[in-house]
Amino acid sequence: MNVRRSAAVLAATAVIGTATPAVAADPSASPSPSVAIPEGLYGAGDPTYDGVWRQSLALIAQHRADVRPAAKAVDWLAGQQCANGSFAPFRADPAKACDSKTLVDTNSTAAAVQALSALGEHQAVVDKAETWLRSWQNKDGGWGYTPGGPSDANSTAVVIGALSATGLDPAKDVLRNGHSPYDALLDLALPCADGGGFAYQPDKKGKLAVNADATAAAVVGAAGLNMVTAQADDRGKGDCADGPADPEQAATNGAAYLAKAVRKDGYLKSALPGSEDQPDYGNTADAVVALAVRDGASAAREPLAWLEKNSADWAKQSGPAAYAQLIIAAETAGADPRDFGGTDLVKQLNALGPAPRKPATAAKADKADKADKADDGSGNAVWWTVLAGLAAGAGVGMLLSGRNRKRHQ
Q: Any idea what the Cα angle at residue 153 is, between residues 151 and 158, rounded to 5°?
């Protein structure tokens, strides 16, 4: 669930066996877009590398906050799909068919599935994307960032979330060579002696190195949850324990690793090459979600409080995906995204895209109001026509009083 500015970094660094995400502003906030910003897209920054991802997160966050996204925003996302069902990070000209040069990926596709499934719109798009994702499942049960690439924890987790959003049970309905997506996650889980978290991918020698970003994603994925359904669990904190491979215990171990990682400062750290350690706001938000779904809201309280105090400038700089991450974290851990450290995250997100539709209840009220107004205007002619016929057999005064009673029932 991280702002997908780290996806390419993770994929690249996996080649040299480090898989350490960089801390950088979300591309959606870049000051000089290289392409025109389409109508309906959230954010004013260059969408080349994260358009579909940030749009999907924005729509999911709005849905969780009981906001009805603008139809043009939903339609823009659906319109990014390629004919084969996949999604690329961004297509400047959706009318142009995708070809071998279109760099589609599992993360963009899975995020779009989660968003559109939650909204209950464009079911045909969802079905095609689901079919495409399943067609690229690796033999170990997982997925890589690029179709056919080696399985990684982040990609496998976000695809688990997408498939569960469509109503599938990944443990039973999505198998390849007898392996489920959970088997792929378990292959990336480290023993408690090595931290108990998850690796992004094995290095060239097949060794695993714990990674906080991958761990946060894998904990949510191992629980069979996604960005829409993630909610705090009241089971209480669990301890790291080695034993038979089991998704639930692996998720507990991962949460124990994250709890330890945030214990000292209240946030996760990351470092750019040649720079000092610095807070990683996006991964801290993901850790909040992971801790809450595994160990309960109380386990996420410290990093959530840190984000409330310190994330405003980061979100403003980073754009819609950052606001969405914070909304999802707040919603999952039981905080109010409309009063998050004094900031209305929902209002801030809404301001970065087309105005949302009115809530369903408000739309119904408007429809009823229009019906009432029509009744007071042109509808009166119908009433008087009926009354004229009835007046022949009854007193005009009685009819008028009967009409008034009808209009006030």
A: 100
Cα 257 to Cα 215: distance, rounded to the nearest angstrom: 8
CA separation for the pair 52, 104 (Å, rounded): 11
Report the candidate in 90, 113, 8, 57 with the shortest Cα–Cα distance to residue 286.
57
Question: Helices (DSSP H) in 16-85: which residue ranges?
Answer: 51-64, 71-78
The stretches of 166-236 forming alpha helices (DSSP H) are 170-173, 181-187, 212-222
Model confidence, pTM: 0.83
Please classify residue 385 by burial: count the beta carbons closer than 10 Å to its beta carbon, then call 0-12 exposed, 13-18 middle and 19+ buried. Answer: exposed
For the CA atoms of 387, 393, 397, 401, what is the dihedral angle to 10 degrees?
-60
pLDDT of residue 360: 57
Query: Span 222-250, mean pLDDT?
Result: 91
Return the exposure string of 98-115: e unless at least 16 CB atoms fall within 10 Å of the residue's CB, then b: beeeeebbbbbbbbbbbb
CA 25 – CA 331 distance, rounded (Å): 23
Q: Residue 176: helix, strand or coil by DSSP? A: strand
Tokens of 313: 């400038």
Q: Summarize pLDDT for 210-219 with one digit per residue, the tens.
A: 999 999 999 9
For 97-151, the pLDDT digits (tens) are 999 999 999 999 999 999 999 999 999 999 999 999 999 999 999 999 999 999 9
Residue of higher predicted confidence among 312 and 385: 312
What is the three-state SS of 219-243?
HHHHCCCCCCCCCCCCCCCCCCCCC
| CB neighbour class for 222 (10 Å; exposed up to 12, middle 13-18, buried from 19) | buried
Distance CA 247, CA 317 (A): 36
Phi-psi domain of 224 (left: phi exceeds 0; alpha: psi -120 through 50; beta: other) = left
What span, in angstroms and rounded, lies between the C-alpha atoms of 189 and 195? 10
By C-alpha distance, which of 56, 96, 63, 100 is closest to 78? 56
Amino acid at 282: G
Handedness of CA 217, 219, 220, 224 (dihedral sign): positive
What is the Cα Rg of the chain in Å? 25
